[in-house]
Amino acid sequence: MSEAAYQEEPVMNVAEPVSQALSIPRISIHGFFEDPACAQVLESATTDRRLSKTHTSVQLGGIPAAVEQFASAPTPNLIIVESRAGREGMLAELGRLAEVCDAGTKVVVIGHLNDVVLYREMVRQGVSEYIVAPYNQMQIINSIASLYNDPDVSPVGRVFAFVGAKGGVGSSTIAHNIGWVISDSLNEDAVIADLDIPFGTAGLNFNQDPTQGIAEALTSPDRLDEVFLERLLSKCTDRLSLFAAPAVIDRDFEWEDSALEAVIDVVRRQVPCFVMDIPHVWTPWARQAMLMADDVVITAEPDLANLRNTKNLVDVLKAARKNDNPPRLVLNKVGMTKRPEISPVDFAGALQLEPSAIIPYEPVVFGTAANNGQMIDEMEKSDRVSEQLHGLARVVAGRSEAPVIRKSMFAPLLEKFSRKKGAN
């Protein structure tokens, strides 16, 4: 095959969006660019949660600037360089860069030539990845993640954060039932973590009374490995395990900011689905848990206070998770007798977010399940409730799309709420 034919063959870029959070370790990244627009893409990518543990420096000057800087300084874990040079010029520049690189430093090159001959020569010289400009945030995130994840290791599990817009809206009950459905009906191994340390209800809801659980994991993250994890988990079924909360108030539990991150990293490497039941609090660790999750599920009741709180949560999460799915909305206790309610259509319209589930008010069904320490599917099923729970579980687990509700012709609340937010 001629060299010209090689040039027509496209270089493969990793362009697909990341479908789940990839574990990128605490590495140092230095980027050297010729085009400010290319530099801006990396700077924007560093705000993504997947790169939150990295330390990144971005500057202009391209490969020559990198050679000059590292001629008298140690190289970081990863160097990202951009070059507009032709094939021979780029290879010559990379040869000079190789002379100043320490052993173990990885190099990602961003170029403007879609040239397989060039790509193969760079790989032969030790370049880790070649990306053809223009590129986007997800391409650079995927490329970095692929360098620090062993392809022979089992896929990283997905993490779901469940939080209530207010206390008492039923977020914990929804989280526990979704964990059950994922394990029982969708046949996925799952772990539920009850992060309400003093008042958690997961142990009660599953009729479990473990002596150890999530508190021990958070206070001893350095000990957490596969063996220690098995000791702390309470087995509910063959596929479902529980990180129970101690539910005691006679002692304080304190943990480092990095402890929850360590727990998430260990658990997601062992099971496909990790459900975090987050209490209605706004603390640094609770916010961190939501930002680290693959999906966030907000449970709300259809009233104005819930709408306000949900809107605040959605705005913060969308701004901080620009490359992720928007939060999932669950409307719970819909149709409560004699209670004035905001219709699901208007509630969703104010948030510009379709509900993933609309769960009817069924106090006997949920009350009986709680008192018996059972999940809804273990009891005589309520078709209306069970259908919504199974639909939500499929959406969260990526088995189906979220339902779309019809738009209302009457949305005075939406208009009033939007005007009020705009004035603030």
What does this structure look like?
The protein has helices at 3-8, 36-45, 62-70, 87-100, 116-125, 137-147, 171-184, 202-205, 214-219, 226-232, 257-268, 284-292, 304-320, 344-351, 363-372, 383-396, 412-423, and strands at residues 28-33, 55-60, 78-83, 106-111, 129-132, 158-164, 190-194, 234-235, 240-243, 273-278, 295-300, 328-334, 355-360. The protein is an alpha/beta fold and 424 residues long. An 8-stranded mixed β-sheet has the order 8-9-7-10-6-11-12-13, sandwiched between helices. Helix 14 (344-351) links the parallel strand 12 (328-334) and strand 13 (355-360). The radius of gyration is 25 Å and the shape is elongated. The protein starts with a helix and ends with a helix.
Largest sheet: 8 strands, mixed
Strand order of the largest sheet: 8-9-7-10-6-11-12-13
User: What's the total helix number?
Assistant: 17
Helix content bin:
40-55%
Counting helices, strands and paired strands, the structural category is: alpha/beta
Strand segment count = 13
**Topology-level CATH name of the largest domain:** Rossmann fold
Features:
424 residues, Rossmann fold, 41% helix, elongated
Please summarize what this structure is.
By secondary structure, the protein is of the alpha/beta class. The chain has helices at residues 3-8, 36-45, 62-70, 87-100, 116-125, 137-147, 171-184, 202-205, 214-219, 226-232, 257-268, 284-292, 304-320, 344-351, 363-372, 383-396, 412-423; strands spanning 28-33, 55-60, 78-83, 106-111, 129-132, 158-164, 190-194, 234-235, 240-243, 273-278, 295-300, 328-334, 355-360. The model is unreliable at 1-21 and 404-414 (pLDDT under 50).
